Amino acid sequence: RGFLQILGRTTLITMFAGAGAFYYVTQLDRNPGTQLPFDPEKKTLVVLGSGWGTTSLLKTLDTTDYNVVVISPKNFFLFTPLLPSVAVGTLNPRSIIQPTRYITRHKTRQVSVIEAEATDVDPINKTVTFVDNSDIKGSVSSTTISYDYLVYGVGAEVQTFNIPGVQKHACFMKELGDAERMQREFMDCELRKGTPSEGVETAAFPGQDSKEIDRLLHMVVVGGGPTGVELSGELHDFLEDDLKSWYPELAGKIRITLVEALPSVLPMFSKQLISYTESQFKESKIEIMTKTMVKEVKERSVVLQMPDKSIVEVPCGMVVWAAGNKGRKITQDLMAKLPQDQTNRRGIAVDDFMQMKGANGIFAIGDCTATSYAPTAQVASQQGAYLARVLHQIARRDALQDRLSALEQVHAALPPVVAGDVADAAATAEAEAKKVEEEKEELKRQLAKFKPRPFHYSHQGTLAYIGSDKAIADLPFMNGNFASGGVATYLFWRSAYLSTLFSLRNRTLVATDWLKVKLFGRDVSRE
Ligand code: FAD
Ligand code: NAI
């Protein structure tokens, strides 16, 4: 009994200490201190975007080096890997976003965060024009500012290949709004913009035509990359874990089809993991159609080009388009201003130091660039952190250069030593000139040392959720690759993403959402 009492007391003390520490950390986060004001002597660094690349840059950046201005149409960072979980209601949309000010308010010098969309970058005059894209407009809605350095990290948009009907009828999985809309309207099985709602409830309506039920409950995911595969897995979980219980009469009729133009899904994973995913999907009754290309999306069907080139129209209730990325218009416009150097159709060409080729003072990171790396969060965040370190070196180099220019002016202004000067005056002038010369030489020596290391990407592995509490992982291991799939990998996937989330707040919210869904399931009520 005494032992149990001591154990009880120890547990209680540990719990209180843990809760106290947790509270302390959250309060530190909520109450940022006073920041240094902008310094007119410092150069202006404009950062476009608040995504993976630029958020990672802001976290590492030494803001005492610059006056920093962040411009982004979203005033938050979005943790994209968990976006498909929001789409089916596993996670609350707010759990995977982090306001940019939560990061910038903790920096030493103040950072100006402007919610606006950059519409033009002038690489010659070094200016950025941006517009207020919110619904509520103030007295000013468009402004142009100058920059000394620009970090360009606006990401990419969804690639539709101009396929007819995609913009109008399909749903995307790129922004928080896409997932929120899908979550809200999932029960409608009718994500098509501007069309009347119909879906699970419509399918369940007494006397509904059986062909119509089959159509309404057929969900087509286009693109067998990681986005399409993860979304199919999440959709399957929702149907299996929740809809089956609440709509038993429809359970067997719900179908998911994943359409991929290439011979296999997930080309970036090892053959072993591709086969594993395919067999898991087969077990989960998710149909994979490879070598099949979507040619058109209609209001109530998709038109497919089959492997034998025949054209088939398949009725469906919902189409989710996850067919890859393409450059934003502002990126294409910027590249068009530098036609000699920017010829890569995939995106902005940069050198090994992330400098945009042909532009002075512009650095580009993440999905908007065309590099040898895949357009992933992992690459963008490493580039962001790398660039923050380079910018610190550049600030030091610029300070040395400024000092050197000042000394050169002093040197030029020194009176020449002329024959006939009083010996003392001549000696003083000579000593002064020597001092200036020595300092100049020292500055030149230091400047010569300024050689930032090129960007080096360190691949930490690739993970993907495939549904039914299973995930796949290709991890670099002992100079080789370790491929694994299954429930243990799924637990690893969860803990990896939980620890990658940028803040304690996000980690707590996501963990709580997971627990809520485990206990109570997802919500199937319609607004
Ligand atoms: P983004 O993160 O897209 O950020 C771009 C920023 O620019 C945004 O803040 C945007 O609002 C802003 N912006 C847009 N237009 C303008 C403008 N005109 N002016 C100013 N700002 C602008 N990668 C992984 O490595 N692992 C994963 O598990 C993973 N899962 C993913 C899941 C999904 C559903 C998706 C869609 C992507 C996933 N990715 C994953 C890919 C990853 O999200 C991207 O590679 C990453 O977001 C690229 O970072 P970025 O900073 O270049 O762009
Ligand atoms: P993706 O480019 O990887 O895949 C898109 C797929 O759609 C391609 O396989 C393409 O062949 C197919 N496709 C294109 N047009 C088609 C058509 N008309 N009909 C049928 N299929 C068509 O795009 P995704 O999945 O959005 O990923 C984008 C980037 O984000 C990638 O670099 C990816 O690695 C990364 N990402 C990583 C994740 C992870 O690591 N877990 C998760 C999600 C994205």
TrEMBL record:
Q: Give a Pfam family name.
A: Pyr_redox_2
**Which reactions fall under this protein's catalytic activity?**
a quinone + NADH + H(+) = a quinol + NAD(+); a ubiquinone + NADH + H(+) = a ubiquinol + NAD(+)
Q: Which InterPro entries match?
A: FAD/NAD-bd_sf, FAD/NAD-binding_dom, NDH-2, NDH2-like_C
Q: What GO cellular component entries does it have?
A: mitochondrion
Into which EC class is this enzyme placed?
oxidoreductase
- Coiled coil location: 419-453
Where in the numbering of this chain does the External alternative NADH-ubiquinone oxidoreductase-like C-terminal domain appear?
A: 459-523
Q: What is this protein called?
A: NADH:ubiquinone reductase (non-electrogenic)
